């Protein structure tokens, strides 16, 4: 089975390959094709994978190419993890927004809109190529903003594109762990959009254990989200929000923390990864060791500003191992082998949330089999969550419309309608600022 990884020179590709190395079942991935526009990055990651595979019998073959059509042709699965504009682009997204006093995070608020505007046209081109060159392939999208990009691609690939994110999985795992339950045996009642969802229940043997957690302030304050949001706010909500909702519920504090930080997250990652890829130019450098040390630093500093604002302290050791690669592998296994499973995924709404239309991509538990991912019926969201989901989905639709039409006015509308952008004039200045630093937005007129 052939897996093509777009963004194959990306830093987190070894996580995916590491998961593949642990899969020895029949019908597994036997050939991995890495595609990237940067040959030097491809070379660096290929070296890391070679060291990973040393001594592993029947490790998947790895090839690399800068030719997109060659990479896609004949693929069974396509894993899309591209970053249009690179980490330098992410750093620009953050700085332009912070200069206007609004959030520049890569998936939330102004930064997420800017990232989406330059990513959607590229993602749509990829979707069209997949439809032509590998019409039976399944596309697993991790490119951010994951929900928005998945919806853009679904207009050309239908249900054959599925978005993944490790945040809901990690959240469910933490809740189960603190309740003393096995995460693999728990049903997580999670619903929303990507980076905008809530756990409303966690069932073990048919019993909802979340009320027990909410009733115990010591338990509730003992894990990442309890520390991040505070016990009183979680009890007021009656649910556990995705960590990215910290940017909404504590927006002023988050913006201030990012403005005062020595470096933005994008700038930090840009410098960190530049050191990694530079070191990989040394043929004697121990590729795997250098990569793993860089990865550990990356994970430990994740959302550091938010945790500092909340007084949440350092991340727990158990939360430093990532997880999106495990979701991707579980999804591929379920489809390729008809190994039925349940995963929280980004898929078309169909009739799951009545407040959104059938084509809107949402993030919910899905039953997965050989025919793809099928969203599970969920209870309606409470009013406060419904309002936020509908507002952000409306913004995503404006981003898609702007990317399709090239309308600058529609791009301004997308920024202005976002709950974390507080002025139409700010929205206009954001479009001007982003257009100046991003060649990829030259299509806006």
As an assembly, this protein is single chain
What is the total tally of β strands? 13
Mean pLDDT across every amino acid position? 94
Instruction: Name the helicity range.
Output: 40-55%
What would you report as the Rg, rounded to the nearest angstrom? Answer: 21 Å
Structural class: alpha/beta
The helix count comes to 20
How does the overall form come out from the CA principal axes? globular
Q: What portion of residues belong to β-strands?
A: 15-25%
The biggest beta sheet reads: 6 strands, parallel
Distance between the termini: 43 Å
Please characterize this protein's 3D structure.
The protein is α/β, with parallel strands linked by helices and about 450 residues long. Helices cover about 50% and strands about 15% of the residues. It is built from 20 helices and 13 strands. The chain has helices at about 15-20, 40-55, 70, 85-100, 110-135, 145-155, 165-180, 210-215, 215-220, 225-230, 230-235, 245-250, 250-260, 265-280, 285-300, 305-310, 325-335, 385-405, 410-415, 425-435, and strands at about 1-5, 30-35, 60-65, 75-80, 140, 160-165, 185-195, 195-205, 205-210, 240, 340-350, 360-370, 370-375. The strands form three sheets. The chain has a six-stranded parallel beta sheet, sandwiched between helices. Strand 5 (about 140), helix 6 (about 145-155) and strand 6 (about 160-165) form a beta-alpha-beta unit. Helix 1 (about 15-20) packs parallel to helix 2 (about 40-55) and helix 4 (about 85-100) runs antiparallel to helix 20. It is globular, with a radius of gyration of 21 Å.
């Amino acid at each position: 089975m052939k897996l093509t990884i777009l963004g194959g020179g990306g830093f987190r590709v070894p996580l995916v390959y590491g998961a593949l190395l642990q899969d020895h079942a029949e019908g597994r991935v036997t050939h991995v094709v890495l595609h990237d526009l940067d040959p030097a990055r491809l070379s660096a990651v290929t070296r890391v994978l070679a060291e990973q595979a040393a001594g592993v019998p029947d490790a998947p073959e790895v090839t690399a190419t800068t030719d997109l059509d060659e990479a896609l042709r004949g693929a069974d699965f396509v894993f899309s993890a591209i970053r249009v504009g690179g980490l330098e682009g992410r750093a620009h997204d953050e700085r332009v927004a912070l200069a206007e006093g609004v959030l520049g995070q890569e998936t939330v608020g102004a930064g997420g809109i800017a990232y989406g505007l330059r990513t959607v046209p590229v993602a749509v081109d990829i979707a069209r190529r997949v439809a032509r060159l590998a019409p039976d392939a399944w596309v697993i999208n991790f490119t951010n903003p994951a929900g928005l990009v998945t919806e853009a691609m679904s207009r050309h690939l239908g249900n054959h594109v599925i978005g993944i994110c490790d945040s809901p999985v990690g959240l469910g795992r933490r809740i189960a762990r603190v309740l003393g339950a096995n995460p693999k045996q728990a049903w997580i009642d999670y619903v929303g959009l990507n980076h905008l969802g809530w756990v409303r229940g966690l069932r073990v043997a048919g019993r909802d254990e979340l009320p027990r957690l909410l009733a115990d302030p010591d338990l509730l304050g003992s894990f990442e989200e309890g520390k991040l949001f505070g016990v009183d706010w979680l009890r007021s909500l009656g649910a556990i929000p995705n960590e990215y909702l910290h940017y909404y519920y504590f927006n002023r504090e988050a913006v201030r923390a990012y403005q005062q930080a020595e470096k933005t997250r994008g700038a930090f990652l840009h410098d960190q990864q530049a050191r990694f890829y530079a070191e990989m130019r040394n043929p004697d450098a121990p590729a795997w060791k250098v990569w793993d040390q860089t990865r550990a630093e990356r994970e430990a500093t994740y959302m550091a500003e938010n945790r500092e604002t909340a007084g949440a302290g350092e991340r727990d050791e158990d939360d430093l191992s990532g997880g999106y690669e495990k979701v991707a592998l579980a999804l591929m296994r379920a489809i390729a082998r008809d190994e039925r499973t349940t995963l929280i995924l980004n898929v078309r709404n169909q009739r799951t949330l009545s407040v959104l239309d059938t084509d809107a991509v949402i993030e919910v538990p899905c039953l997965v089999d050989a025919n793809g991912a099928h969203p599970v019926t969920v209870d309606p969201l409470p009013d406060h969550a419904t309002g936020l989901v509908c507002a952000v989905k409306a913004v995503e639709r404006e981003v898609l419309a702007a990317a399709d039409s090239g309308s600058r006015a529609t791009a301004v509308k997308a920024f202005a309608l976002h709950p974390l952008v507080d002025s139409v004039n700010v929205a206009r200045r954001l479009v001007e600022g982003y257009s100046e630093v991003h060649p990829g937005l030259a299509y806006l007129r």
